[in-house]
Amino acid sequence: MKKDLKYITEKKLADFPITMITAYDFPSGQAMDEAGIDCVLVGDSVGTNYLGLSNEREVTIADMLHHTSAVRRGVRNAFLIADLPFGCADTVESALANSRFLIEKGADCVKIEGWSEKAEIVNNLVNNGCVVCAHIGYNPQIHNKPAVFGKDKDQAEDLLNSASVLAEAGASLIVLEKVPAELAEKISNNLKIPTIGIGSGNGCDGQVLVINDLLGLSPKLFKHVRRFANLRQTMLEAFKEYKRAVENREFPA
Ligand code: KIV
Asked: How many A from CA of 35 to the centre of ligand 1?
């Protein structure tokens, strides 16, 4: 069954957690779909996790289009979200043009980083038929260093206000990254649209993890991550075993 926005929003109403994982290629998108994951996100985290770049800001719209097409070929049922990369959503015009490119490649929804200052851009996207996921809290495209946002009263109010303003502007989902758990829960309870948390506790309507972190492909273990596998180790052992078998003329038989 194709999971649309209605399906995702009804999960919030039913208080049943929404699942989201990032994907950057065909086979992982296909496996997530088969596992019944609700939403697949082609994040700009493709840069640091898949392309070996040092920063999300180096990711281009060409990178995002390439990876969105690949993931789309694998994903039939999940709701597919693609990131508007750094510098591609600074004006209403560029955000709309770049969103249309991502939608042409198969995205069901575009994700945009930024707090209330992005409301006008979100509103213009929605008025032009795009489905939009907002992203507040820590924004890798904007903030220089990962940090928790919303610990002090002013910033907490700013986040609460930004979430409402972006929802009023027409956002259909909102990612809360590195927001204190209590505040993330309060934001989630205040909104009709679903919140998806990362490093923001258990009170959000859903959770997202970066595929490399979830599978144990990245050497770093972030505080908010649980490794559900250790594929780096599995991969390493397979490569070593292949090398050994070829060098000993055991393979091919
Ligand atoms: O690009 C990404 O992977 C993201 C998630 C961390 C939400 O934006």
From this structure: 20
Q: Report the C-alpha gap between 20 and 145 in whole angstroms.
A: 24
Nearest ligand 1 atom, CA 113: 8
Q: For residue 188, what is the enclosing H or E element?
A: helix 181-190
- What's the CA angle centered on 49, arms 51 and 229, to 5 degrees? 135
User: 33 in ligand 1 pocket by Cβ < 6 Å?
Assistant: no
Report how far residue 195's alpha carbon sits from residue 15's, in angstroms, rounded to the nearest whole number: 12
* Residue 56 DSSP class: G
* Residue 44 in contact with ligand 1 by CB distance below 6 A: yes
Ligand 1 centre distance from Cα of residue 251 (Å): 41
Long-range pairs for 246-251 at CB < 8 Å and ≥24 separation? none
Q: CA 94 to CA 43: how far, in whole Å?
A: 18
85 lines ligand 1 (CB under 6 A): no
Q: Is the CB of 218 under 6 A from ligand 1?
A: no
User: Which residues are part of the catalytic machinery?
Assistant: 177
The type of residue at 68 is T
Please report the domains of the chain, with CATH numbers, ordered by start residue: 5-214 (3.20.20.60)
Q: How many CA atoms lie within 13 A of 102 on its CB side?
A: 34
pLDDT tens figures, 60-73: 999 999 999 999 99
Helix (H, G, I), strand (E, B) or coil at 236: helix
Whether the full predicted model's pTM is greater than 0.85, yes or no, is: yes
Ligand 1 atom 4: residue of nearest CA: 43
DSSP 114: B
pLDDT for 20:
98
Which parts of 144-249 are beta strand (E)?
173-177, 195-198, 206-209
